[in-house]
Design goal:
20 helices; Sugar ABC transporter substrate-binding protein; 5-stranded mixed beta sheet; Bact_solute-bd_prot1; 7-stranded mixed beta sheet; D-Maltodextrin-Binding Protein, domain 2; SBP; signal
């Protein structure tokens, strides 16, 4: 399993609680240095399989190859990490290398002058940049400058479906929004929920809006929100997307009681692989869990997957995707020159090596390295991994999840209003009015 729902949920708690900005921080040396005149660099990241083991292995390989440039890794469980980072930032004692997701947190810490500008370093080390997916740099970039090193895996959000459910109604997977709406009554007539959704978790609902905004109006609609443009949520495409989601809710497009289903326990995935729901919009991190828990659902060839279809008359490019374009490593401004050099050497020779890429592939993850096709072909799940690789590498735009892109304050308001929208307790116009108030916060 690359990233199960639980790790995704932990990430979102972390984003809300620590500024989504675990990727960027005001940092100093953490704890006592060991030898080398304080040159030992510190590196903090989250626990949980399989990432923790792979990250520690990368550090071990680097330390073995670089006796004069050592890195001290420390892994924290989500809540402990969230608290530790916040405390360390306030005390100026955060680690040299900070692992996270870029986006809104990165932007806020960049504006506070707390993380190093890596633009010139990447220009001087073009080979490092050129081997990574170009789409991975968006969430590492603020005002045209790069402040974090993309790393690890790419996790787009896709439309999963149960081939058995489509056989039961004699239909094909949807090729447009119109097809989706046409399929809803057909599945309901057979006692199958058209879509699984863990609505109580809120961020799961958000994935629908991310795609509808893009497919209807293109990436510039949300980009205007991210850029802090006044009344950006009032875009006609936004109101159209918000209205379409409520039409789907009213048509019983989601499993009954979706607002009380929680993603942490993978209940939404179970609805799909047990045949209770026909489709599910979710991140590719759920694939490993479905393969592990779903009996022969995946191994038996019953799981289908595709990019989210276009909306009739929409302006967005149907190759666009959204999700986690990568994970990110930032360097604190307060680290010593020696520590920063060690961090940059790690970025050059220790991140996404062939050994690390192979470890991610073995756990169902697609590393953000160009030219992985041959390794994918010989992996455990070649068809799915190739689909993920193609979706990510061919996307004209790979947008970062909204709650990562926004500040913690705006992200919490966003999730709260999305939940109300899906519960039909506010109108699209009320959503727009509420969210316009927090633009730029």
């Amino acid at each position: 399993m690359a990233h199960g729902s639980m790790s995704r949920r932990n990430f979102l708690n972390l984003a809300a609680g620590a500024g989504a900005g675990v990727a960027l921080a005001s940092c100093g040396s953490s704890g006592p240095s060991q030898g080398g005149g304080g040159a030992e660099a510190s590196y903090w990241f989250l626990t949980a399989a399989p990432g923790e083991v792979i990250r520690k292995n990368a550090v071990s390989r680097f330390n073995k190859a670089n006796p004069d440039n050592q890195i001290k890794p420390t892994a924290f469980e989500n809540d402990a990490y969230k608290t530790k980072i916040r405390t360390a930032l306030g005390a100026g004692q955060a680690p040299t290398i900070i692992w996270g997701w870029g986006g809104g947190g990165l932007k806020s810490w960049v504006e506070a002058g707390q993380v190093d500008d890596l633009t010139d370093w990447f220009a001087q080390n073009a080979a490092v940049k050129d081997r990574l997916f170009p789409s991975s740099f968006g969430a590492a970039t603020v005002n045209g400058k790069i402040y974090a090193m993309p790393c690890e895996t790419v996790e787009p959000i896709v439309l999963f479906y149960d081939k058995r459910a489509f056989d039961k109604i004699g239909a094909e997977p949807p090729q447009s929004w119109g097809d989706i709406m046409d399929l809803v009554p057909k599945f309901n007539a057979k006692g199958i929920a058209p879509f699984s959704l863990a609505g109580q978790s809120r961020w799961t609902n958000m994935m629908w809006l991310e795609f509808l905004f893009d497919r209807i109006g293109g990436p510039e609609v949300f980009q205007a929100v991210f850029d802090g443009q006044k009344d950006a949520w009032s875009h006609p495409a936004a109101l159209d997307a918000l209205g379409k989601v409520q039409e789907l809710v009213r048509a019983d497009g989601f499993v009954k009681g979706f607002s009380s289903v929680v993603a942490d326990a993978n209940a939404d995935q179970a609805l799909l692989f047990t045949g209770k729901a026909a489709m599910m919009v979710h991140g590719t991190w759920t694939y490993g869990q479905m393969a592990e828990e779903g009996g022969n659902f995946v191994s038996g060839g019953n799981l289908g997957y595709m990019n989210f279809p276009p909306v009739d008359g929409g302006k967005g490019d149907p190759s666009n995707t959204v999700g986690n374009p990568a994970q990110y490593l930032a360097i604190s401004t307060k680290s010593s020159a020696e520590q920063k050099e060690t961090a940059k050497k790690f970025f050059t020779t220790g991140v996404l090596t062939d050994e690390e890429s192979a470890e991610w592939l073995d756990t169902g993850g697609v590393p953000i390295v160009k030219g992985s096709e041959s390794k994918i072909a010989s992996s455990k799940d070649p068809a799915f991994l190739k689909f993920v690789y193609d979706t990510a590498s061919n996307a004209k735009v790979f947008a970062q999840s909204w709650d990562q892109a926004l500040s913690p304050t705006a992200a919490e308001k966003l999730l709260d209003n999305i939940a109300k929208l899906f519960q039909l307790s506010i109108t699209p116009q009320q959503y727009v009015d509420n969210m316009n108030q927090v633009i730029g916060q």
